[in-house]
Amino acid sequence: MAAGSAAFRPWFSQLAEQPAAGKSQGALRFLGDPGVSYQLRLTLNDAARNPAPPLVVTAALPASAAMPATAADYAVLGALPAQPDGAPVGIGVRQEHPSADGALLLGADASLHGLGGVAAPIPNVPPVSVAAAVDVASLPSGPLRLLADGTTWSSSGTAGPRFAVKAPVRMLGLSDGSILAVDASGAIAVASSSVAGEGRRAGSVSLPAGTTLVDAAVFPGSHGGFALDSAGVVHAFGIADPGLAAIMSGWTLPGKPVAVALGGTPQAPAGIMTDASGDWQTFGSMLLLPEATFGGPLFDATTGVPVR
Which of 235, 243, 184 lies closest to 210, judged by CA? Predict the structure, then answer.
């Protein structure tokens, strides 16, 4: 399968019996993103591994197509009514933050949606700013939304601190009550969550030419953490450990990086880098990652190696 002009990626393989003449065997249903054109390539190999000429078909999903409910949707929401004719307006999810109590979704219109154990209704007073939503941070006072113009807003429509950044990509709530914003250019700003003032510059990440920051995460109880750039390289910020750079030089993620999850400490870091296709690469011990990232440790029955 290939999305748009991207390279083909393995999707599904099956060992099939010889079908009866004139009959088909099996079927697949492909769920894609609305407005995206896909190429599906089928290759058949005989028992001697000789390939037949591949068959390539193109399928384009209408931009107004609605995503059907998944098994996970039914597990969280219960029985759903039949999907009506036409396509309902999608919320355009910008961020998803899992936790032990469920997941918090941020829509492109800055609306908040709680899934799973998030049972309490979340107020959604629209911000005064009309800029697109970028991220949401869970603070003791409640969720705080970050918009593309650097302003922040509570769920009740109250203005929070403003960050002097041009292209924010992530906002992180820290253990001391302050919040940190990371810009695509590598700039990092920090502000108090209780003061609706201007966030102060707290450093920056030096990026290679032609790259931008796509995500960042901080260590628990710290202002320091790791940032992931568009080339799949991890950068440290707010950490005074000269030996860390040598360790990080081997942490890269080919493809199109989109997210990084972080746990452990600067002396024993652990995390996961994820790309746009869902591939992921780990660094450090996954046993150090928080429960919201992976529910619990599992061990391979044969080797005893811990996996998640």
Answer: 184
How far is residue 242 from each of residues 27, 152, 171, 193, 246, measured CA to CA in Å? 55, 34, 26, 31, 8
Model confidence pLDDT, tens digit, residues 85-103? 444 444 567 777 766 666 7
As a whole number of angstroms, the longest Cα–Cα distance in the chain is 74
129: left (phi over 0), alpha (psi -120 to 50) or beta: beta
pTM (2 d.p.): 0.62
Strands of the sheet containing 102-107, edge to edge, are 93-99, 102-107, 112-115
User: Is it the case that residue 252 has pLDDT exceeding 80?
Assistant: no
Read off the pLDDT of each residue in 203-212 and give the average, rounded to a whole number: 87
What are the sequence ranges of the domains in the chain? 1-7+25-66, 205-308
On the CB side of 31, how many CA atoms lie within 13 Å of its CA?
5
Q: Which residues contact 182 (CB under 8 A, 6 or more apart)?
A: 165, 168, 169, 170, 171, 172, 188, 213, 216, 227
C-alpha span between 171 and 188 (Å, rounded) = 10
Cα separation of 275 and 207, whole Å? 19
The secondary structure of 52-117, three-state, reads CCCEEEEEECCCCCCCCCCHHHHHHHCCCCCCCCCCCCCCCEEEEEEECCEEEEEECCCCEEEECC
30's CB contacts (< 8 A; 6+ apart) are 1, 38, 40, 59
With a CB cutoff of 8 Å and minimum separation 6, the contacts of 89 are none
CB–CB of 179/212 below 8 Å? Answer: no
